[in-house]
Hints:
This protein is an alpha/beta fold and 310 residues long. It has 13 helices and nine strands. The structure holds phosphoric acid mono(formamide)ester and norvaline. Residues 56-59, 129, 137, 269-271 line the site of phosphoric acid mono(formamide)ester.
Amino acid sequence: MPNLKGRDLLTLAEYGRDDIYHLLAKGLELKRRQRLGALERPLDGKTVAMIFEKPSTRTRVSFESGVAQLGASAIYLGSDDLQLARGETVSDTGKTLSRYVDAIVIRTFGHDRVEALADAADVPVVNALSDDYHPCQTLADLLTILERKDRLAGLRVAYIGDGNNVCNSLMIGAAKVGARISVATPKGYEPTSEAMAVIEDCVRGFVDSVKVTNDPIEAVTGADIVYTDVWVSMGQDSEREARLAKFDGYQVDKKMMRKAKRDALFMHCLPAHRGEEVAADVIDGPNSVVFDQAENRLHAQKALLVALLG
Ligand code: CP
Ligand code: NVA
């Protein structure tokens, strides 16, 4: 069994196929136990600091309730709660918090802040979303696909929209578990060359597993999973009008879904903007599993915390 004790989770590139399958199996077990009312409290007495420099519904609440369910305590630290807001360095913050808590969860802007925190901290650091990666989301997404399709290897995933943080971690996760992923973005919104280099570096058979195109119909044809995310991420509000114009034609609607397999799942990390990246009758339709994804944040992150701290 892989040993993840003491590790960080920054992008998902640092975890191998077996690590990911181990976390998914543990997440499914914890979900089953919770349904039976048979959850144990393996993290009794531990404390997790949660630094959130951007808003959050799912990540914050699933981490806070998950930590409590495991017997540990969470301390929520918003942007104005720390001396970070007055110029204390991320590094000094990491060194200080490590003297008090057993893990640090961080949601922030530049991914370099997550890396600096992880470099300085003596305790595991978990990326709860940076501008470039969202690995906790991907773990929950893979858990959801596994539940619904009973396998991951060999599946075809289409990601339509912005080549963003969610897209980057999904490419890594999907390729690592043996799925094939096609990403379709408008020109200029492809995943960055830095992100592609990270993925190429960590995925065996990269050329066969990951394709990037500007043609959404090419990406979605024959897909088992159709995934999208917002066109305007947190921190990009000033680009809103320009982005809405550029992403015209990339909405996942019924017509696009018909190109995928008949039993294709529709996925979205949420929050969603109906009428922008997805049509209401798709996200609210029978193939949508978006609230399973949201629920599975809880189970996947509990599995992660048990593995890192247990
Ligand atoms: N999917 C996700 O991370 O949602 P929140 O921004 O609500 O945490
Ligand atoms: N790409 C989105 C994801 C939100 C969960 C953002 O960064 O705002």
